[in-house]
Fold this protein.
Amino acid sequence: QVPLVESGGGLVQPGESLRLSCAGSGFTFSRYDLTWYRRAPGKERELVATITSASGRTDYADSVKGRFTISRDNAKNTVYLQMNSLNPEDTAVYFCYAGYSTLYGYGQNYWGQGTQVTVSS
């Protein structure tokens, strides 16, 4: 059983939108802070957006503020990344990461396998 599975990636044109999903299984999803990262070709991994476990506080990279929205549905064990006004610089493999919240002590963390997003005309 794969703990985190991303979906929703694909090829879109500049200005279009995509919604990524990341479904968790086999762990207590609600106790995890959830983060979307991306890695573009030839670049370092970049934190895109994060949402905390308890308060649902969100934070974004400056490069995506105002365009991307992270959200979570603990009942569905799923975290989402709504991406609007996509541009070619958003082209990357997007990964979700579940980090056990320190509010609850210590636990195992998980990475998804990634989903490709390509923005091109």
